[in-house]
Design a protein that fits this description.
globular; mainly alpha
């Protein structure tokens, strides 16, 4: 149950700050936070491929933050998991 509650703490701000519901350029104060969220980059990739027909070179600036986020999330998860086992 706590995992579901924590997922809402991440999912809702991610959805609101990604540019999915509101224009990203209109959120001047929240753009920095939005750039750190993986959903922002994923939406840019999907929109570019589906609407513009972008290829690998055009999508690369939005692809590389996703593996970086994965590495950071897995690193934090491993650090916290190891801490609970001791």
């Amino acid at each position: 149950m706590p995992a579901m509650q924590m997922s809402f703490c991440f999912f809702l701000p991610s959805l609101l700050l990604s540019g999915f519901m509101f224009p990203f350029r209109g959120m001047a104060s929240a753009q920095t936070t939005g750039e750190a969220l993986p959903l922002t980059h994923f939406l840019r990739i999907v929109r570019g491929v589906l609407l513009k027909g972008n290829g690998g070179l055009e999508t690369w600036p939005h692809v590389w933050p996703l593996p970086v986020f994965i590495v950071v999330a897995v690193g934090v998860g491993l650090k916290r998991y190891r801490h609970t086992l001791d």
